[in-house]
Design a protein that fits this description.
Strand order of the largest sheet: 2-3-1-4-5-6
Order of helices and strands: HEHEEHEHHEHEHHHH
Number of strands: 6
Number of helices: 10
Largest sheet: 6 strands, mixed
Strand content: 5-15%
Amino acid sequence: MKDYVAMFQQKIAEIDQEVKAVYIVNAGNMNHGKSSLFNSLLDCIHFAEEDIRTTVMADKALWQDNVYLVDTPGLDAEDIDDNEAYKTYPKANVIVFVHTLGTGELHAKELEAINKIKTFFVSEDFFWQHFCLVLTAADAQDEENLAKIKGKILLDVKNVCGGENFRTFVVSNPRYRKGRDEGKKVLLNKSGMMELRDYLQSQVDEWLAENDVIRKTRIHREKEELQKQLEQERTNIEKTMEVKEAARKAKQQIIISKLENILGEQREREEELKSRTARLSDLKHRLKILREKHEKDKAKF
């Protein structure tokens, strides 16, 4: 049987260690620029940037003192990736949800993911205060069309997920990197990256101060999870006992049936013995009569 107390204590130790820092966690579908966005914030290539499925495990990088950027797998690639991503979200101080405007509106699975991620936070209001929507765009895209898509996205998040008054940024990684590499401040300012970076940095102290609330919430969830595991363990034990009891009763019934058969056969033998004994007595009596008659007949001659 598992040592649930030790497992729970280990979880508490992990939570206590994690709440000493701030975790900025990205989310979104594969190839929507999550890794590229965080690499731009880091100003180095730490997370793999490919047009194929590369991020299969959550990875983190130290951004500044006590602040980590956490890159998660895409939510639309493999079920195992989804599970890995959803395991990471509960420790997030902020969720940076990334969507590429070039693909159009938010897909149904993206909206579904936002609704699911909400459940990992203290409350829905708390979640929207710690939710950041980043829409990535290429330089060549039509800004008027992008504005329409952005409006539809915000409307869908409001209608489907119940979210509004959260921070939204439109960011161009190519524009930022070109501006950074060529020292062009105009491109840097137009990239949207500076605004996003300034916002995240301005919130760090507040997020650190909230970690006690996050700690209590995560410990409460761990207790609930432990209770579920214990209840499942109890159910499994009860089912095992029921199976064993059923097997015992079946075995007992077989033994009883065998004993009854043996006793039945014994009774049949006893009845047969009685019958034979009676027949033997009858034959002895008849033989005696015949002998007596024979002796009488002999006396006449």
